[in-house]
Amino acid sequence: MTLILIAIGRVIGCYSYNPFIFEKGMIILKKIMIGVIGKTGSGKTSLINSFSTISNHEFEFIDTPGTLALADQIEEKTSNLDYAIFVLPANEKFSGESFALWQLLKYYQIPTFIFINKVDLKTWDKKELDQNLKEQLGSSSILFNDKLRDESLEEIALQDEVLLDKYIKDGHISEEDIRELIAKRKVYPYYVGSALNRDEISTFFNGIKRWYELSNKNKSSKTQRFFDASFIYTVKVKEDDISSCIKALRKIENENPRLNVKWIKQLDEIQVNLMGDLAGKVLEDRLKKDFNIQAQIVPAQPLYKETVNSSVEGVGHYSPLRHYSEVHLIIESGKRGSGITFDADCPWTVLPRNWQEVVHQEILTEEIPGVLIGAPIIDLKFTLIGGISNLAHSGSEDFRKSTRRAVRQGLMQLKAMNQCQLLEPFYRFKLILPEENVGQAIQDISQMSGEVKISDHRGSIVTLTGMAPVSEMQNYQKKVSSYTHGLGYLSCVFAEYRNCHNASEVIESYKYDPENDINFPIDSVFCLNKINTQIRWDQVDKYCLYPMKN
What is the pLDDT of residues 466-476, one digit of tens each? Predict the structure, then answer.
């Protein structure tokens, strides 16, 4: 037995792929992993079931979800395949989802066989089918059968310059050459049949058996996922379950980092990234089954933010009895995407270093809200230019309170000058749909205050790309599905914050009153004649002790 094993090891050692593994003293044949890919209703499961009636020791056929709402699961299975079978229903138009799945196979460079299924439901013309397939998937899609015709051999030869020269010279293509072209994704053999009726299933199975290459190992080295797009969803649970739900979601996030679990303090809600409503239902079931948490997952409301379009000096004073602090800040707009930045242009002889550090930390760590709707502020630069302390009465908390007041007082000045700006999140989107629906899509996106362009047009399928507000795009997939009759596919990913397209409407709906926000007051507190006195934000400049810059 030992000599036999050594001999076999020497034989198989000459191949780049070892088809055998040794387990518990036995030689076991590794099976070729073949994923069956296709949209819901294409007949993937029927095809796998039909293969089960055929003696099979070489292949393991792996079913994949048929909806891109479960793109994470599809991609997880696809990235480690040896080969793929791409199933297309003959009785349906080529859809946006199908095109996206085809692009996934291209991204991971998976050698692919194509099966045109359900031909029993439609009278089909070989020439028309071939033409349509080439329009959608390219000229490398070539009809195979038991015996390759001369016209198919010519098409195969045209896919490779070296092979074409060889074919012209010899008039012959070897099976090894064809296998190599398939393995390198230069040729996609397609077969026609009916999985449900088992028409041509044996022919297709034998074709895979004949044309796959044993040494092909396409384990992907890709570090970035193909489906990076997702929609933002809110996870609603009982208040008592919030902490345990976040912990559970963190565990799930370890398996799927794109879940991107966040606690949004301003909205008091948990948010996650998902591919669609169905993925939300799957996550609800997972939380219930594995963690006994009853959750409702719904499309999230957009998280608005606020910035400014001009600059101003903000003043905050806090000196009730036995307390003392005053802070002067220049507040100005920063570069879009810069976040919150801080600088100091104030000598330590004016305001000691320790108090300047308190101001610095308060600006960078405290989420001080804006004055339009109380949303987080962003893309602002703060420069400390002055302040006053008292050796006996100043404390860190005093300077934290005067810093918040300085920020809020400056923002109120800018609001009065109409220089506060509401921002909203924008998605970067890709919309794949039939060409007859392009006009509808462009009109819709324009009405959303979005930007759109045609980035690809292949056969009857068009790809639109652009940017649009999250508030408008969040539920647009349902409308796309309706007007394309299920043939359109929309994917979105957060891109950036831009000026809110309907700011007045949003501000009115929030009904936020900064003067009644007791957590972040806009007025200052002075000790006048030994009496604690609140001074309105628009009068502070008349009472402040450190001189105003302007």
Answer: 999 999 988 89
